[in-house]
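Chapter summary example.
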Amino acid sequence: MCFLRKNTSHLPALGTAKLPIKGIDISPGLTYNSKNTARSCRNLCDTQRRETPWETICKKYGLPTAIALVVGIVIGSGIFFKATKVLANNNGDMGRSLLTVGIVGAIMLICSFVFANLASRYEKVNGVIDYAEAALGRGYAYYVAWFMTLIYYPTITSTLGWVTAQYAAILFGFPVAGMTHYWVGFGILLADGLINAYAPRLAGKLQVSATVIKLIPLILMAIAGTITGLSNGLTVEAFTAASAQIASQGSGLMGAIVAFAFAYEGWIIATSINSELRNAKKNLPLALSLGALIVVVIYMAYFVGLTGSMSTAEMMAAGDMLPEKAFGNLFGPAAGTIVFVFIVISCLGTTNGLMMGCARGAYSLGVRGEGIAPRFFARVDKKTDMATNSAWFGIIIALLWYSYWHFFFIHGMGPSFFNWEPDELPIITLYAGYIPMFISVMAHSKGSKPLMRYILPVVAILGCCFMVYCAFVAYGIQALYYLGFFALVMAVGALVRITQSRQKSKPE
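The structure predicted for these 508 residues follows.
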């Protein structure tokens, strides 16, 4: 199904969800049949592009791709390289570590339910930005889009590029933190970006395939590790000394929650393809709800499975080698090496999914007539059916953040106040940005049932506030340094918007 988007449209109020959205129309004389082939869809889009060549994009993805995007983005490197950090913050207490996984998972799950409700009502260009516009207007949507384009998308995408290179280094035996590592990660991000820019359908197929592959080691560990741990007593031992210390180790728990937020992050990026998703008002809510639930279950099962492979003290000592040692203990030395093949594929799948959002950031601004050079970044290439200019912008920004991650954060170059971890604090910032949107849902969702209008949004708001609190407890002064940088980026965004508004107001 191919839609034509007009630049000057506003989303309807939350209480008028059943009304058609202005600015999203089927072109006159054109019809859509769900049985149309991809070629037919492309032909329809080509017809539309003759009228507005820079505003159309084809609906090329189905429900499996959307679910794979949620699961595939979330399940990636985080579950592997954040596990030891969670254990370390909790002093090796597996009970508190599992509590960490459950708390962050519950917050993600509740937020995804609220957004699933919004996704069933609105369909425009880029889900979370559309919902921000519907809830609080174009101004708020602009700043959300600006933040996601310049900070959120590229920071977590660049982090995955670096982590993918790290696990590739372990697998193939090149230096873990040298310039070889840097250029491998650089090449991974560039290649993933080019696939998304020039072969978006291939990117969708790769996402589905990588998601299936990455689930194999997690499910194996969950099943085999749990069975082994119950038989050898390691699982019982890991949990016997649990919860009594939670109150006295509060800061550790907070740090673990902030750290593991990365392992759950990225689910919201699935909403970035809502304009390219067939039957989006039905399929996107299903993808958000089912995908989030699948992730929570798999994560908790994986952590329980780890207890059957070794003690928690051994897990913390293993560091980045934890997957290899855990699988090696359960299935033999060869399995420890093979699992890194799955991890690299898992990381590549997540990087691809994150790049799908990164590549569409500038497009979400441009199609609204906002940001820098909106017509340029909103233009869709008729051959690739992709906003190629936007994709290249996303690639460049991701590579810049990747360089920051490698040289500033990992190697400590530059001033100390600029060495905050880029894969965690932007995530917490987005959770803070959800709060006004959830408040607006309660204020304007007339006719909705109390569960969807009040109960879930209130719980989601409390969860988001808790995440912000945890960030300040865990990072202290570094959180303030990050806020200073965030304010600077937002100020530049405000200057761009003011300048653009003045130019529009000038008489021709």
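To summarize the output: The first strand starts at residue 2 and ends at 5.
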